[in-house]
Amino acid sequence: MGEVVSVEKFKALSPSEFFYRNKEIAGFSNPARALYQTVRELVENALDATDTHYILPDVKVVIRSEGVGGSTGVVADESESYEGVLYSVQVEDNGIGLPPQHVPRAFGQLLYSSKYVLRQSRGMFGLGAKMAILYGQITTGRPAEVITSQILSKKIYYFKVSIDIASNSPIIHEYSILAKNSDWHGTTVRVYLIGDWQRSKQKIHDYVRRTAIIAPYANIYFEDPEGNILMFKRSTEEMPVPPREVKPHPYGVDVELLKRMLSDTTAETLKDFLVNEFQNVGELTALKIIEGAGLKPDLKPSELKLNEINELIKSIKATKIKAPSGRHLSFLGEKLIELGLRETLKPEFAAATTRSASVYGGHAFVVEAGIAYGGKILQSDKPILLRYANKIPLLYDESADVIYDIVDPKKFDWSRYGVPSQSPLAVLVHVCSTKVPYKGVGKEAIADVPEVEREVRIAVREVARKLKAYLSRKAKEFEEVERAVTIAKYIPDVSHSLFKLSDGGVKREVLEEKLLQLLNRRLSMFKIKSLKDVVIEVS
Amino acid sequence: MSHDAPLTPKDVEARSRAMEVLRSKFIALVDDVMAGRVPTLVIRKRTLTNTLYDDVNGLLRLGEGTLKRSFLNVNEAKKFMQTLLMAGIIYEALKNNEYPTIRDLYYRGKHTIKYRDLVSRKTGEENSWEEQKESDSVIRDLEVFIDMLREDMLILSKEKGKIVGNMRIKSGGDVIDLSKMGHGAYSIEPTPDLIEFLDYDAEYVLVIEKDAVFQQLHRIGYWKTNRVLLVTSAGQPDRATRRFVRRLNEELGLPVYILSDCDPYGWYIYSVFKVGSITLSYESERLATPKARFLGVMMSDIYGSPKLNKKPYLTESERSNYIIKASERDRDRADELENYKWFQTPRWKVEIEIFREKRSKLEIEALTSKGLKFLADTYLPSKIEVGDWIA
């Protein structure tokens, strides 16, 4: 919620205007990045509308080239001109759908949100889709199209909506209601924008593939402007437990957030405010905090002065409060990560681990790691790194990420785990938290917070150990097979010789069978079914 | 190799004995396999550390150390297979009244095994053995395992040794008079145990390392005038020659004198006749002649020895003509000989000391150069007469 602070500093600008002028903050710095970011924002919304509500996601993404376009539109800034190819990005989900009355503001007004509860979600600013719409309308002048229907609704709603940048309010260009005669529900959003497919192609493909890895319970259909189709079929109906809303932990608030909470609360007294609005704060703790700040428990929250708020923050930090729990966090779990890796990368081995919740600052977080080896994974001198935060693939700024340093063969001794320097290896790390500690504004890399770094390191070691166990078991098995073959190939000669030396007293076939039995009895991991599998011919 | 000629009784007897030994040894393995026990060959080790000098009998023999060659031991499986393969082939040859050579056995056993590597799924090829060296080594293992020499299994090898003298023997049903060989000599057959001694007129056996010297002595009738059975090994003695000499000594009680070059190599040839070969000590019990005497050529024959109160057979000018400078390798070889117990006698110490001091050696041929008459009429008879030999 700290991001809100920066908005507050630009009081003269509407939020829409602010983001319009600072597009790069949200990842819309150039046409290639914008196309990637648009896909990403819409897909993440689609997944949030489904799995968060226990609906098995069916997500369809279509990017089409719509010919050469330019800035012609409603809100065009005369000083900027966007040249390039016009694309449409359409993302369809089978989610819960949106109540029609919320649609204009949900898509046409930035920072449309009023709750101060925390919930782990994919969306970055809570405004991702709106940024995409804003960018689209700036570069093409075209409004976004939204079709939505809620689960029990008998109607389908259609909107054409854009944002009035100056006043940060929605403009509805078209609105219609259709009767629904199926049980379809969900939302389809189509955005037009000037993009650069050639330059974003690789990243978008990666993004879709990596999303499929972490959501093996989703059907994902993706069609790109060249007509290539990526289809990921769901491989399980098991879904992660959705995240639950949770009140902020006192350790996690700053002055600005506290200020907002104080002014918005319905609590009558400072004590009730602390008890009602925060997690892990009971009466006793609340009184301790208030006493530490030198304040009175029955102060009216909205009347606190800035210096009193500062004192309150100081006192919070100084008071011992039970750490936030991670129960509200939604992680994938070992089974799903392993499945995702198996289905998508087709490795010969995959394993995963989910750490129990830890805390940094006032925020709970859970680290998960997965590892995949061999099979269709290509050999490389570095493991393929799959980074995720709150189920979102992180594709940019890889080397700036704390995870990168941990997995990097220069710093992580993979050979200790039996992994040769050239290996078909992929490592997945998923950090989930109500507040992921990103590095910088791009939100593509996780910062080196010691608590997080430690957990990531432990998780990676855990999965590396699982791989090691697998590799050594495999090596042992190979060794045994080789030993067995070495011996088995001599069975015919030995049997034939014994047959001769016994003057034909015991049949050669019987001796062969007996010797094979003896050999098999010595093998623990593997058996030779028939001598014919090993010996082709003895001339 | 199979023939229609009737086998001599000695041959038939040797054959059935060898077959019986092979069968009984290997039937035990068949029983193991049928009873679900891992077939294992227990063989006395042919290593140097397991080679002992038997003081009492004066020969080399294998110690008690054994190796277990289990078929299910990945490092031993191939050797195990090869040993059985060889046993089977030899058994069959015995059964078919054949006389294979070790080269025949190599070819009979050599074949290709085509197999599939179950890890890589690739097919591989492997020969039962590659070079004859391998199959020869297997034959030696087999000899140790069944405690029987290959000659007893009627396996042939090249003939090398020769004999002439006043003696009649019976071989392959024929009576052969060793005094009627013309300028030639009787080639000692590879199966000397099939030879029957009929009668002889000789006082001792003289074994000469060099074939050329043997021929010269033969042509001047040395064996007639001295009543000697004259034998040559033509270099390193083969097993048949050693076995034959042993029989002459053991069965007829004839003293055996060895005449070799005067250098550590020549002395080692004597040593092989006497105690056996260090690397193949298992043969010695059948092949060594512990009572063989070293007649010469001695260092003290060349230089004389004040210690022995012995005068040299050569004058100073002859010496300077005939002696050859000893090489580094000769000296190393002398070091080795000094380590062997049977060379650690006072008499041998004198010889080796002179060798070290003079750093020279001499071939038997040098003595014939001084004059064949000298060798035949002076050197040999007088040395035997005065007992100038080393026991």
Topology:
The complex is a heterodimer of chains A (539) and B (391).
Chain A: H1 3-9, H2 15-21, H3 31-50, E1 58-69, E2 84-92, H4 103-108, H5 128-140, E3 144-149, E4 155-164, E5 169-179, E6 186-195, H6 197-214, E7 219-223, E8 229-232, H7 255-264, H8 270-277, H9 283-292, H10 306-318, H11 334-345, E9 349-354, E10 358-360, E11 363-373, E12 384-389, E13 392-394, H12 402-407, E14 425-433, H13 450-488, H14 491-501, H15 508-522, E15 535-538
Parallel strand pairs in A: 1-7, 12-14
Antiparallel strand pairs in A: 1-2, 2-6, 3-4, 3-6, 4-5, 7-8, 9-11, 10-11, 11-14, 12-13
Helix pairs in contact in A: 3-5, 3-6, 6-11, 8-9, 9-10, 14-15
Chain B: H1 9-34, E1 40-44, E2 51-54, E3 59-62, E4 66-70, H2 77-95, H3 102-109, E5 112-116, E6 123-127, H4 132-146, E7 162-164, E8 167-171, E9 174-177, E10 186-187, E11 196-200, E12 204-208, H5 211-219, H6 222-226, E13 228-232, H7 239-252, E14 256-259, H8 264-274, H9 284-287, E15 293-296, H10 299-303, H11 316-322, E16 324-325, H12 328-339, H13 346-358, E17 360-361, H14 364-370, H15 372-386
Helix pairs in contact in B: 1-2, 2-4, 3-4, 14-15
Describe the structure.
The complex is a heterodimer of chains A (539) and B (391). With 539 residues, chain A is an alpha+beta fold. Chain A has four domains: 3-232, Histidine kinase-like ATPase, C-terminal domain (Heat Shock Protein 90, 2-Layer Sandwich); 250-318, Helicase, Ruva Protein, domain 3 (Orthogonal Bundle); 334-469, Ribosomal Protein S5, domain 2; 489-533, no CATH class. Chain A has 15 helices and 15 strands. Chain A has an eight-stranded mixed sheet with strand order 5-4-3-6-2-1-7-8. In chain A, strands 9, 10, 11, 12, 13 and 14 form a six-stranded mixed sheet that branches. The longest helix of chain A is centred in the last third of the chain and has 39 residues, at 450-488. With 391 residues, chain B is an alpha+beta fold. Chain B folds into two domains: 9-153, Arc Repressor Mutant, subunit A (Orthogonal Bundle); 162-386, Dna Topoisomerase Vi A Subunit, Chain: A, domain 2 (3-Layer(aba) Sandwich). Chain B is built from 15 helices and 17 strands. In chain B, strands 10-7-13-12-14-15 form a six-stranded mixed sheet, sandwiched between helices. In chain B, strand 2 (51-54) and strand 3 (59-62) form a beta hairpin. In chain B, helix 1 packs antiparallel against helix 2. Chain B is globular. The mean pLDDT of chain B is 93. The interface between A and B is large, with 39 and 36 residues. Strand 15 (535-538) of chain A pairs antiparallel with strand 5 of chain B, so a sheet runs across the interface.
